[in-house]
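Quiz preparation item.
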């Protein structure tokens, strides 16, 4: 395995916060008695099924941390696999992904 592939394979997950100016809508559909992979999240009109459903299933997103406090604006942190997340998803969420080692895509 070459060094670039080895380094990329060692990166298991990364996280980026959706900028507040790009966060327009958040919806969560989940059953508190089941794992999150059975539900979905809608962010800015895009449906993300974190395990088996949704138009953006399998495009590198591992999950979302939704921070909702009464005296603050909502925050959403996206956890993703850097070599699997698609340009379509990056654009839909409005996040910036740091370049992989050497500024190249996997």
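Solution:
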């Amino acid at each position: 395995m070459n060094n670039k592939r080895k380094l990329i394979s060692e990166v298991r997950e990364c996280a980026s916060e959706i900028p507040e100016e790009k966060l327009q809508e958040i919806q969560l559909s989940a059953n508190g008695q089941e794992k999150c992979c059975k539900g979905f999240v809608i962010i800015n009109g895009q449906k993300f099924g974190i395990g088996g459903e949704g138009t953006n299933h399998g495009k590198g997103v591992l999950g979302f941390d939704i921070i909702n406090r009464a005296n603050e604006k909502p925050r959403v942190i996206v956890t993703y696999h850097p070599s699997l997340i698609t340009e379509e998803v990056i654009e839909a969420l409005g996040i910036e992904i740091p370049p992989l080692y050497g500024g190249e895509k996997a």
